[in-house]
Amino acid sequence: MPSLFSAVGNKTIEERTAMAEDYHARLEENAWVLADMKANGVDLSKERIIDFAHVFNNKAAAQSFVDAVVARGLVAEFDLKDSGEYDVIVSLRLKPNLNEITVHESDLGKLARSFHGHADGWGFINDDNVGSH
């Protein structure tokens, strides 16, 4: 997937500033989340399936986003939420590190906005203790 910064070339100063501010806000929040996970014993050196959530108001927009994500070679699926909105989950296998999560979250969030949706966070199942007693 192209990084957030590979798409900057044709942007105005205002668009570049907004992209940088969005990236830095996400970077700060993700740093806090990852530090909290580590403090709670989550092994961040282990590769995992990380789910990036996105919300859309209608099925057509959600499907268009899924199609765009799949065209990039990624895995995505969507479901209708109780609220009537559509929740699209994009799953990536990677080690949970600050920069990589933030770049993917920013890139996918930008793509979601192009279909009138928005990013709604990320997470993964901590299966470190599965099978242990």
From TrEMBL:
Pfam families: RraB
Transmembrane segments: none
Matching InterPro entries: RraB-like_sf (IPR036701), RraB_dom (IPR009671)
Gene3D superfamilies, sorted: RraB-like (3.30.70.970)
Regulator of ribonuclease activity B domain residues: 28-123
Protein name from the UniProt record: Ribonuclease E inhibitor RraB
Taxonomic lineage of the native organism: Bacteria, Pseudomonadati, Pseudomonadota, Alphaproteobacteria, Hyphomicrobiales
